[in-house]
Amino acid sequence: xxxxxxxxxxxxxTGSTYIxxxxxxxxxxxxxxxxxxxxxSLYAHDQAMADLRGVAWHDPDSGWTWDRLAAMAVAWPGDxxxxxxxxxxxxxxxxxxxxxxxxxAEVHIIVAGRDLWRTLPSMWQQSIRGRxxxxxxxxxxxxxxxxxxxxxxxHTADRMLRRWGDLVPPTQRHLITxxxxxxxxxxxxxxxxxxxxxxxxxxxxxxxxxNVSLGAAEVExxxxxxQALGDLYPHRVPYQRVVQKHLVDAVxxxxxxxxxxxxxxxxxxxxxxxxxxxxxxxxxxxxxxxGDLEELRPVAIPADGPTPDxxxxxxxxxxxxxxxxxxxxxxxxxxxxxEPPPVNPFIRLRNRAAGGVKRRLRNTVTFGTRVTxxxxxxxxxxxxx
Length: 385
What we know:
There is one protein chain. The chain is α/β, with parallel strands linked by helices. Among the domains are: 4-117 and 146-211 and 265-298, 3-Layer(aba) Sandwich (Rossmann fold); 345-373. It is 48% helix and 7% strand. Strands 2-3-1-4-5-6 form a six-stranded parallel sheet, sandwiched between helices. Helix 3 crosses helix 4 and helix 11 (216-229) packs across helix 14 (313-335). The longest helix has 23 residues, at 313-335. It starts with a strand and ends in a 20-residue tail after the last helix.
């Protein structure tokens, strides 16, 4: 039976992809040298999470359910790490089921928190890249005035800890704060490793792969494309396979994305007030903090440029034309024949020699002879009836 199971439940946009890259990039080392199991694959964790939550995009053909992943965790004799930023969106009932399914293991809940000034624009853009169509101002207004409770429930550390953390003792609840810009690239991993007891220096920790943010013009263009799609390429797999792959990754992310944007100075006071409230709530909540709650307070709020809603139509049109040109180049690259890899000359000589041997054997054994039964080639053997 597993000794400890660490459930890393998000939130989204808090460096979870970076943490997961380190975990799976060092999975063999963690298992063999530290006795820490990261079960199977990121895909398995994602599908198990989708099964637990009962979301429409769970693929039943994947074979991965929450119970199957939990059984693998329980069967391991050491520590286990399960990571999916989608787990944080589970209901109280689903979270209770997940913890109960891990039997008598010591379950730890890990939540990561990030300041709202960075979280809100990132979450809106993530929703657009997930096929949403709402304008940035509509998103912010819904969050500000309580019409989009899912944001607070699924993306803020205090509410996620209430649903999940209350299921385990205080010593098994962990909050990791996302370090500010400019911190050493491995700071977040060091905090995560400290929580899970992974020995320092055991894992190879590369610099995080940049998750390119789209500029104001590019994300507004994508939003309008989503509107125009209608029923084409529904969420989640069809959209990722076509739109995400061939439009977002291949073209939009390759642009300069120069027009950056944020919440806007007119909402600075509101964001600061909410951040203070969250910090006080978390300060009073009994849990283990890796990092500093002060990192959840926005600092040096910049004067942002125009939001996607405020862009002149000419900027969106320019982005659209450049994107069409980029997609033409992408389409042309897909039509180019794939060059076969160069053949090692020693392999070519070996293949020629082997071919010569085969020809000589064929000429010696079968030339001019009908061979239908191996027994016919053995003197005295009795052919099959």
